[in-house]
């Protein structure tokens, strides 16, 4: 009777162990696919705003926890199987020992596969984190390089504008200096004119005297001109008269020299006198 009870307990525990092993096997297959990124779910190092609630990492951790619990249950069942086999009156048969050893090997294999998948997943996650970090660094460097190039262009353009402003300021300063010099010259000329006017106003006698001298000089010039014209007319008339009487050139010259002097022709008539006598 006791042997049948032990046999029934052994069979029940073995069935439970097989069910757990099958369930763990299915879980490990899904867990392996999830860890290697197959099945449409993988680890992505995104920001908290873009990662969904049931992300690959969350599913992986949840499944890992379930598998650990199942492995713990299977380990407990294997211990109970060992206890049941040790409580039998007769020594355990080789088939029973082989079955018990097989269950322990399956538990060990499942545990190793679980640890291996978990380690591979963590290594892949660390590698992806590193790649994402490097990619972000490269993107930041590219963006900063583009920004630096734009800043250099802006600085060069700003320097050109400042150079143009300096040139314009220099030209404006030159124009202002020129205007100031012209204004100063105009003021100087105004002061000179004012002084001359002051001098002429202070000495009206000198001014009137100079005006009288100029007037007399012009009058004397007019009188001398009239006298000279009259003398020329008289000499020409006398010469024409003597020529009309039939006197020769030498005789006319002698008479005119006796009347008006030996240099009458150059003093009164000028260069046209010889032609007139001839």
From TrEMBL:
Topology term for the membrane: Single-pass type IV membrane protein
BP-aspect Gene Ontology terms: endoplasmic reticulum to Golgi vesicle-mediated transport; inter-Golgi cisterna vesicle-mediated transport; protein transport; vesicle fusion
A GO cellular component annotation in the UniProt record: cis-Golgi network
Keyword hit for Coiled coil: yes
Keywords: Coiled coil, Golgi apparatus, Membrane, Protein transport, Transmembrane, Transmembrane helix, Transport
Pfam families (UniProt xref): V-SNARE_C
Principal location class: Golgi
Domain of life (superkingdom): Eukaryota
Coiled-coil annotated residue ranges, if any: 60-120
Keyword Transmembrane listed: yes
Localization, UniProt: Golgi apparatus membrane
InterPro entries documented for this protein: Golgi_SNAP_su1
Gene Ontology MF annotations: SNAP receptor activity
PANTHER family named in the record: GOLGI SNAP RECEPTOR COMPLEX MEMBER 1 (PTHR21094:SF2), GOS-28 SNARE- RELATED (PTHR21094)
Family membership: Belongs to the GOSR1 family.
Protein name: Golgi SNAP receptor complex member 1
Organism in which the protein naturally occurs: Coptotermes formosanus (Formosan subterranean termite)
Top-level taxonomy: Eukaryota, Metazoa, Ecdysozoa, Arthropoda, Hexapoda
């Amino acid at each position: 009777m006791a042997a049948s009870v032990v046999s029934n307990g052994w069979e029940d525990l073995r069935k439970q162990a097989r069910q757990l092993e099958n369930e763990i096997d299915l879980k490990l297959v899904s867990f392996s696919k999830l860890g290697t990124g197959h099945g449409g779910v993988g680890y992505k190092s995104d920001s908290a705003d873009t990662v969904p609630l049931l992300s690959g990492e969350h599913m992986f951790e949840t499944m890992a926890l379930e598998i650990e619990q199942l492995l713990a249950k299977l380990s407990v069942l294997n211990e109970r199987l060992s206890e049941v086999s040790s409580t039998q009156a007769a020594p355990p048969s080789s088939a029973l020992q082989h079955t018990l050893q097989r269950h322990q090997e399956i538990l060990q294999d499942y545990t190793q596969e679980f640890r291996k998948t978990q380690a591979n997943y963590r290594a892949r996650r660390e590698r992806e984190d590193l790649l994402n970090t490097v990619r972000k660094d490269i993107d930041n460097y590219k963006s900063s390089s583009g920004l630096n190039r734009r800043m250099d262009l802006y600085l060069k353009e700003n320097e050109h504008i400042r150079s143009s402003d300096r040139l314009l300021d220099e030209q404006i300063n030159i124009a202002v200096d020129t205007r100031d010099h012209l204004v100063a010259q105009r003021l100087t000329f105004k002061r000179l004119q004012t002084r001359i006017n002051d001098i002429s106003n202070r000495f009206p006698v000198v001014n009137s005297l100079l005006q009288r001298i100029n007037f007399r000089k012009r009058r004397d010039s007019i009188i001398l001109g009239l006298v000279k014209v009259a003398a020329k007319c008289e000499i020409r008339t006398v010469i024409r008269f003597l020529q009309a009487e039939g006197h020769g050139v030498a005789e006319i010259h002698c008479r005119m020299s006796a009347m008006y002097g030996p240099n009458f022709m150059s003093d009164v008539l000028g260069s046209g006198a010889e032609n007139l006598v001839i």
